[in-house]
Amino acid sequence: xxxxxxxxxxxxxxxxxxxxxxxxxxxxxxxxxxxxxxxxxxxxxxxxxxxxxxxxxxxxxxxxxxxxxxxxxxxxxxxxxxxxxxxxxxxxxxxxxxxxxxxxxxxxxxxxxxxxxxxxxxxxxxxxxxxxxxxxxxxxxxxxxxxxxxxxxxxxxxxxxxxxxxxxxxxxxxxxxxxxxxxxxxxxxxxxxxxxxxxxxxxxxxxxxxxxxxxxxxxxxxxxxxxxxxxxxxxxxxxxxxxxxxxxxxxxxxxxxxxxxxxxxxxxxxxxxxxxxxxxxxxxxxxxxxxxxxxxxxxxxxxxxxxxxxxxxxxxxxxxxxxxxxxxxxxxxxxxxxxxxxxxxxxxxxxxxxxxxxxxxxxxxxxxxxxxxxxxxxxxxxxxxxxxxxxxxxxxxxxxxxxxxxxxxxxxxxxxxxxxxxxxxxxxxxxxxxxxxxxxxxxxxxxxxxxxxxxxxxxxxxxxxxxxxxxxxxxxxxxxxxxxxxxxxxxxxxxxxxxxxxxxxxxxxxxxxxxxxxxxxxxxxxxxxxxxxxxxxxxxxxxxxxxxxxxxxxxxxxxxxxxxxxxxxxxxxxxxxxxxxxxxxxxxxxxxxxxxxxxxxxxxxxxxxxxxxxxxxxxxxxxxxxxxxxxxxxxxxxxxxxxxxxxxxxxxxxxxxxxxxxxxxxxxxxxxxxxxxxxxxxxxxxxxxxxx
Length: 692
What we know:
alpha/beta; nine-stranded mixed beta sheet; two-stranded antiparallel ribbon; 13 strands; 66% helix; globular
């Protein structure tokens, strides 16, 4: 398969999606502008229709779509060839990827008309623009140095936050943004930085190495930070060609086949669990055997060279399908729903307004007074839903905080078995030697860091499931309250105008639900990793983007330091008490774990007690944000319905309305909005056809 053909196909698909995104964004913007102009003109005619919330949501959605990109996060252990893979993907030796040095910064690669690197700092230092040569020289480190820094619990560049690389590449210009992370074995602090980007990305490209299949560190990260979190992960098994090179006789096809099959079995055994979607095995669509250095060498010599046999064509095909079909369709489905909603509001408001134009002021006031009981029912529904959210909030805040307390207090029960896998390889005499004790204690400290991080991550998954369940419950309640709310608003329209407004042909109950109910039910929110999508219509609520994760909320760094400081001191004393005569590693390990458990168990009640309130408050804040937004949207809708009636009365009292001209203006407004909605619908349907 020609790499050029596959690359061109990928770029063409991205270009097609970019055009649809631009077209839909433009139409959403046109609808917002049309509504805004209509409301302005209404001030001099029959009054505004109360469409301010729709205008705001549509404008925000349009802006977010214009800025939308597909963001890919590249993860992996150190020296797996992440930067080499990226250089091969983009076709230039752009990022540091020499044999020895390795990337030491989290680097965001995005499109820019001019080539430049901007380094952002975390200490108040203004961002610095530097050239690529300087970037490579200053911000790469030798693996040995990286290992030493890891042992010393130091970051390579502690005052640097991240770097942004702007580059005029076709792949980036078509809407791809890539986040290149440092190795996962850098430091725990750096790991948290890399892993913190996970929820902000559409897909993760996890790079492994064929000659080191699924190390303990890699399995640790997959188990603790990827598994069961609903993430879209592509696994790239790099350096596949080195399997042949490791054979005594590289030309022995039978031995090569046997070796490759053995490696494949190891990877499938370790990765199969991460390649399940709704009970379907998609291993072949997510795991790819590649040779990044071979592909890079070919592309540097000849950009259009065939990369058949490197795994890149197969990977690009799968990535293209995922991004431009699955994710793009979900993104534009939200835009279509929002456009339909906007049109539905305009149509309903106009159909209410037209019959009322003929009524005199007194008759209109009487009709408005007649619907006061219905407006009270709307307020009652709002208060009922608000009360339910607060009830769920209080219940879940306590439940999640209690679960942390229980989880923490039970850590001692499994500590001896759990901590064994984290212990560094050491010789007991190293601890007794003053010259080597510092390295021994640093290794032990790092072991505690990883143990605590992983345990907190495991608990955060429990908390996530609790929260997801709570918001699923509220989503169902929102739909039920929304249905009741719609019945009341239909009654208001019927009493005001003497007629019912039929739904738009071709719409679903979902389309005709109140806007606040859609927001509360999360219909605008993608499940994962799309900041632009989550912000669609200012509407998508994802509690993870507010809490981020409970590890961050709890201040894990301070907690690790506190636990390590409390535990390691007495552990050292216990080991010293063994005496020089105890030199067997197994006995020393057992004594170390026993002493560590003893001190940890003493400290756990304090941790559980101190962290209960911060966790409770963090969960409560998630629900408070949700409740505030839902309540504001419900009140906006109620007030908009009242204001459109008040506006009409005010206009009737101030001057005589030209009913014929106003009827024509309102019909034109509806037609203009409908035309843009049809354009969005056509673009969406075309995308579905091309994606199938």
